[in-house]
Amino acid sequence: MDDYEQPASRAAFNGLTHSETLVVAERHTVPQVEPNWSGFADMPLVLATAMMIGFIEQTCIEGLRPFLSTAQRTVGTHVDITHIAATPIGLKVTANVELTAIEGKTLVFKVECRDESGLIGEGIHRRAIIDLQRFVQRL
User: Which of 10, 30, 38, 55 shows its CA 20 to 30 Å from the CA of 102?
Assistant: First the structure.
């Protein structure tokens, strides 16, 4: 028995797209990922790749939320994203996600992030639907 569930209705997800926007703040920058990691401490104050990926995941989660039961959540299972350009503090970033396929229990998203200057990241992200209580009990 695994922790992943089949989507309730493939038709409900057909053509799903969602966008979210954030303004890059210092807390989103490379030195803030983990202040105790010396390799990050003296890096430029630009949007961290880890934060961009987290923002993409958040956008997928919010896009799926209306289609899930109160007992369901989604978890990331795969990330294949290229971070193309740096974004400094103060610029607006928009994440756009599109559900392109359902492969068994996996939801496949085409994802991109853009700032005010253009494309900063793109790729593929996969998520799986879980029953939250069953998932937590198995930890």
Answer: 55
Q: What integer is the mean pLDDT of 113-133?
A: 97
Phi–psi pair at 43, nearest 5 degrees: -85, 160
Asked if 57 is an active-site residue, the reply is yes
- Residue from 29, 57, 112, 125 carrying the catalytic annotation: 57
Select which of 28, 83, 112, 125 is catalytic. Answer: 83
Mean pLDDT computed over every residue of the chain:
92
- Provide the sign of the torsion angle of the four alpha carbons 38, 44, 49, 51, taken in this order: positive
Residues 6+ apart with CB under 8 A from 5: 72, 105, 128, 129, 130, 131
Enter the tokens of residue 103: 């492969």
Torsion of CA 62, 18, 114, 24, to 10 degrees: -30
Three-class DSSP category at 97: strand
pLDDT of residue 77: 97
Q: Which tokens in the block code for residue 3?
A: 């922790």
